[in-house]
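To the structural biology subgroup,

Please find below the input and predicted structure for Coenzyme Q-binding protein COQ10 START domain-containing protein, which we are adding to the shared reference set this quarter. The sequence is reproduced verbatim from the submission form. If anyone notices a discrepancy with their own records, reply to this email rather than editing the shared folder directly, so we keep one authoritative version.
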Amino acid sequence: MALSSTASPFAGWANLRCPQHPSGILTTPTYGEASAVFTVCTETVISSNVSSVYNAIIDFNRYSAWNSFVYRVDLPPTVQTPDQVYVGMPMTLHTTGLVPLLNTTSAEEITVLDLPTTEGYSMIAWKYIDGLDGLGSRAEHPNILVPRDDGATRYLSYETYYNGLEIGVMVALRASLQFQFEQQGQDLKDYVETRGNKS
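Predicted structure (tokenized):
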């Protein structure tokens, strides 16, 4: 498992929950809340330990086995296994379902790899790279894993989008993004729990 990490400036990561109102915004490790426009979010309980969920998320080469939203991830040629994933690592996500009849891609960069933290949570996060130094669009996607007393993991996955030249496009895709995030969370839950039952 990858153990590199970056410091997170916000102290309440373990207590974050999906916003109850569409206007609710969740902070991100890189950008905070300033200039945030909207957040898409999903939350579920996965009947497995934090390490198993964490390792499934960073095992990008196996996304095709379970992820109906992000069906492929292109990684640097030097990254073949989850333990080689590192902060600052570039990757390209290949996604489906956002635009009818079209697949889409997005350039991303790993920003946080924390397993575990003394604050009682683990986090994996990546940010969108627009090629314009954030002028076109900024977004970051934290995955927060909180261990429960019963051995299960509370999984919070969200992405916050920030003001930029492309924000109109992202606002138009908001409903599709929310649906795909919810489906992706269910896919991860099914995948990890099924693997646990087979072990």
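Summary notes: The mean pLDDT is 93. Residues 20-26+33-198 form a domain with the Alpha-D-Glucose-1,6-Bisphosphate; Chain A, domain 4 fold (CATH 3.30.530.20).

Regards,
Lab coordination
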